[in-house]
Amino acid sequence: MRIAVSSDMDEPIARQAVEELRRRGHAVEVFGALRDGDRADWAWSAEAAARAVASGAADQAVVCCWTGAGASMAANKVPGVRAALCGDAYSARGARVWSDANALALSLRLLSGGLLGEILDAWFDAAADGDRDAQDRANIAHLGAIESAPSAPGAPDAPPAPTVKSAPAAGPSAGGASERS
Ligand SMILES: O=C(CO)[C@H](O)[C@H](O)COP(=O)(O)O
């Protein structure tokens, strides 16, 4: 896969993310503090990586900043990009399966090498449409509707009677089967 990776800080863990992705066979293009001459700030660096996804130059992005919050916000401003800030493997898998995320936002502050590996395993091992149900698909489609009609909340694609889902069962099981009913 072609992965655009950005960071606003040239931190060892950000470099480790790049190396880990390459080790897994991905073609990585770096942005921000990871590339000479790029503007490093989180809004700019994450935007650059997200635009690579939106343009088709990259399949997915990994956007990093100290908290991961700013990078995820910037990436999500780019139409067509669905960035998810994930601090654990369970969230990473859910973001891919249930929300069809195409950008992984990471907190440089929270990441260790071990956690990074777990999150990347879950992200890339998750079947793209795993146990995604009709309501998930409606939600994902609605993200596109929000982008194209931001002033018309809920219309016209909202399902008529959304079902209230129960909360997922507690527990980690990042790479395992769905815990959601
Ligand atoms: O986590 C972040 C944004 O969500 C940034 O990495 C953090 O705020 C540091 O950025 P700056 O050096 O520009 O203040």
What do these coordinates show?
This protein is an alpha/beta fold and 181 residues long. Helix 1 (12-23) packs parallel to helix 5, helix 2 packs across helix 3 and helix 4 packs parallel to helix 5 (113-125). Strand 4 (83-85), helix 4 and strand 5 (103-107) form a beta-alpha-beta unit. It is 40% helix and 14% strand. Residues 8, 41-42, 65-67, 69-70 line the site of ribulose-5-phosphate. The site of ribulose-5-phosphate has 8 residues, from helix 3.
Give the tags.
181 residues; alpha/beta; five-stranded parallel sheet; 14% strand; binds ribulose-5-phosphate; Ribose 5-phosphate isomerase B
Which geometry do the CA atoms define?
globular
Report the radius of gyration as a whole number of Å. 16 Å
> Which structural class is indicated by helix and strand composition?
alpha/beta
Beta-strand level of the residues, as a percent range?
Answer: 5-15%
List all distinct small molecules, including ions and cofactors, that are bound in this structure.
ribulose-5-phosphate
As residue ranges, the low-confidence spans are: 171-178
Chain-averaged pLDDT: 89
